[in-house]
Each structure stands twice: as C-alpha cells, then as structure tokens.
Design goal:
Jelly Rolls, alpha+beta, 6 helices, seven-stranded antiparallel beta sheet, Aspartyl/asparaginyl beta-hydroxylase domain-containing protein, single chain, binds fe (ii) ion
Length: about 260
C-alpha cells in the first residue's frame, strides 16, 4: 500500500494556481478571533476548523482520541464571520483537516531561513488514503514577500521563492519541503492555510485553476543569501550551545508549525 498522491505535485512538490480576485472579497480575516500560537515567526492564528470546533489550534493528533489531519470541525463563531473563506476552502471538495488564517508579523530573510521547517501533516494518516498537502491563499497584498521552499534545508540552490500578492494561491506538500515565509511588511501578513487530502477532487481543482510550478525565482543577491546562511549557522550553533549547557536533548525546533 502507499498513499494516494497528486500527479501534479509528484515531481515538483508544489503548484501555483491562477490568482484569485482578492480585492472583490470582503476582508473577513480582520473580523476573526485569533489565538496566540507559536509558529515560524511572530504569529497568531484564527481557526476556521479545529479538532472539535473549539477556538484552538492544536494538532488533531494531540487530542483524545488522537487522529490525523482530516475531518476538521468548523468553528461556528469564526466561520460565521468568514463565509467566503469557508467556501474557498470547500471548493475543491477534498477532505479538510486544519483550516486557519495565519497572521504573521514582518521578519527578515535570515529569520525566515532560521524558521525553515517541515510540517507533520501526515502523522497517523492511514496508509492507502490520501496524502495531506496544504493550500495557501494569500489574503493581504504582500507582493514583496515570498514563501521559501527548500528540498534541502541548508542548500540555497534548492530554494524556490514564490511571491505573495493578494490572491496568490499555492498548494504545497509541506511535509516534503522545508518552508517558511519571508514577510517584508510593514503590515502583518494574512493567509488562509488549509490541509486537504490528495485525491481526484484535489487533482480536478488543480487542473481547473491551471496549477503549475512557477517558471523563475524572483532575483535575490547571492551576497544576501550567503550572509543569511552564515547568520543561520551562527544562530543554530548558539542555540545548540545553550541547549547543551542545559543538558537537554535538542528536540524539534518547533512543536507545531503552520507556515
Ligand atoms: Fe509549515
């Protein structure tokens, strides 16, 4: 047995869909109830789904009984304020796990690289069912910000940088890629992140919106990249030294990551 995966994601691991006309929609994300939830960077989250429909963001596998990132329960108070976002998450017709709006404060390139992580979307996911991937719908207009994807955490030559203007729509295998967002600001960034189960429904949705890899990275000065790599190495060494001094094992950098 093996997981059902999307052919469109098989080779590249991500696709960019047609832009959504974000300006035509109300800014529902500004009305939602957010909770403090540490992710990669300075973040809060507004759950549209959760394990039991409560306003909380814990992974479904951390609840009783533990379960995988599917069958999210709508959070009544938040979906009442965001019918358009709910409809967009439902449009593919694929099973939805976690679905939430992230609020991310501005950061810098080195900070984003330090925060690179892989998601744990498929914990407890039964073999033979659909692999969980994630949709990213950028809500705020952050054309100078990028989501960074790397096949190899420490190798910038594997880096893909995808700009995040309002209405940008991506689907990413975030368990495959190391990823984080470099958000230039100055205002917070808002993005709807949805866990979808791979399968024919999601494949049809990707085809409908012409999902494909982007053709070219936006340029970035090699010196900026090298300096940021050095800064990340310095921060990681510093962190390792602190942890070693405390006599602890260096477990995962983040307990729960969403962006
Ligand atoms: Fe993530």
């Amino acid at each position: 047995m093996s997981y059902i995966r999307s052919n469109a994601l098989e080779e590249t691991g991500y696709v960019v869909l047609d832009r959504h006309d974000q300006a035509a929609d109300p800014k529902e994300w500004l009305d939602l109830e957010y909770v403090d939830w540490k992710s990669s960077g300075d973040t809060r989250f507004a759950p549209l789904t959760s394990a039991f429909g409560d306003v909380e963001c814990n992974g479904f596998w951390n609840h009783t009984p533990p379960r995988t990132d599917k069958d999210g329960v709508w959070v009544p108070s938040n979906v009442a304020k965001a019918p358009v976002l709910k409809a967009r998450a439902e449009e593919p017709g694929a099973n939805i796990g976690r679905c939430r709006v992230i609020e991310l404060q501005p950061n810098d390139y080195a900070g984003a690289l330090y925060n690179l992580h892989q998601d744990d979307n498929n914990r407890l996911n039964p073999d033979g069912t659909g692999w969980i991937v994630r949709g990213f719908f950028n809500l705020s207009d952050d054309a100078d910000s990028v989501i960074i994807l790397r096949e190899d955490r420490f190798h910038p030559e594997t880096e893909i940088r995808i700009p995040l203007p309002a209405g940008a729509q991506l689907i990413v295998d975030t368990q495959r890629f190391w990823h984080a967002v470099w958000h230039t600001g100055p205002e917070p960034r808002y993005c709807l992140i949805t866990s979808w189960e791979s399968g024919p429904e999601l494949d049809a949705y990707i085809a409908k919106y012409h999902g494909k890899p982007q053709s070219q990275n936006p340029p970035l000065d090699p010196e900026i990249i090298e300096n940021a790599q050095a800064e990340v190495r310095r921060r990681l060494a510093e962190r390792a030294a602190i942890i070693a001094a405390k006599g602890r094992v260096d477990d995962d950098q983040f307990d729960e990551i969403d962006d």
